[in-house]
Amino acid sequence: MKKTQKILMILVIFLLFSLAGCSSKIDNAENEKLVKKVIEATKSVKSTNVKIETIQNFTNPDQNVHSIIQLDTSMTTNPFIVKINRNEERNGQKIESMLYITDDTVYVEDIKNKTWKRATNEKFREGYNGKRKLANFEIVTEFLHAIQNKMKVSENDLNYEVTYSGSENSVNKVFSKILDSVQTGTEELRKKLLVEKVEVKYIIDKKTFLPIECEIKAKFAYFKDGQRVISVSLDEEFTAKFSEINEVKEIIIPEEAKNGKLIEADLSYK
C-alpha cells in the first residue's frame, strides 16, 4: 500500500512539473501571437495622434538636472507627414518649438528667432528618423517584440495589459533608441551608465490590437573600476498615449515653413 502511495505521489509530482512546463510554452506562444497581431495591426494605421512625455532626473556631485520633454505629435501616411509640437522644461527654463517631417524634407522652427529652416539631404534627415518611428508605432512595437519572451499578459473586457520587469541587454538597447528619438545629445551620457532595471506597461485594445498606451521606467547606475558610484544616477520615464487613430485630419505645413531657409549643415537643436 505504501509503495503504491509513493508511486502515485511521484506520478502526481511529475504531472505537475509537466503541466508547468507546458503552461510556460503556451504562454510564450500566446505572447508571440499577440505581438504579431499588434505589429500587423499597426501596419494598417493611416493616421494618429500621440502625446509623448519623458522625465529625466540626473544626479551627480556637481549638479542635479531635472528635465521634462513633451511631444504633441500627429501623423498621416498619405501623404506622409509628422507634425511635432515640442515643449522642454529643464531646471525651470522652458523651450517650445515646432517640427514637420515628410518623406524628403525636415522643417525646423528656429527656437532663437522663431523663423523656419528646412533640410532635404539624407544625412541631415537621419537624425529625425527616430521621431518618425515614434509617431507611426514602429519603435513602440519593436520594444514590445524585445520583451515578448519575458512579458506577462493580463486582460479585462476592453484591453490587454502587458507588463515586464528586468534588465536584458536586448531590451535596454531598444529603450535607449526610444530615448534618443525623443532627446538627442544624451547618448554619450547613457553609454557611461548601466541599466539596473526597466519596468514596462502596455495597454493594447482587444478589438483592434493597437497599442493605446505605453509606459517605460528605467534606473541607470554609474560604475567606476567595477564599483558603483552612489552619488551618480539617472532615472528616466517615458510615456506615449495614442488617440484618434485613423481619424486625424489633413496636416497642413505652413507656408513660412515651406519657404524657410534651406540648410545642409546640422542643427544644434532637434
From TrEMBL:
Q: Indicate whether Mitochondrion appears among the record's keywords.
A: no
Which residues constitute the signal peptide according to the record? 1-29
UniProtKB keywords: Signal
Gene3D superfamilies (UniProt xref): 2.50.20.20
Q: Does the keyword Signal apply?
A: yes
Instruction: Give the matching Pfam families.
Output: DUF6612
Protein name as catalogued: Aspartate carbamoyltransferase, regulatory subunit
Organism equals Parvimonas micra ATCC 33270
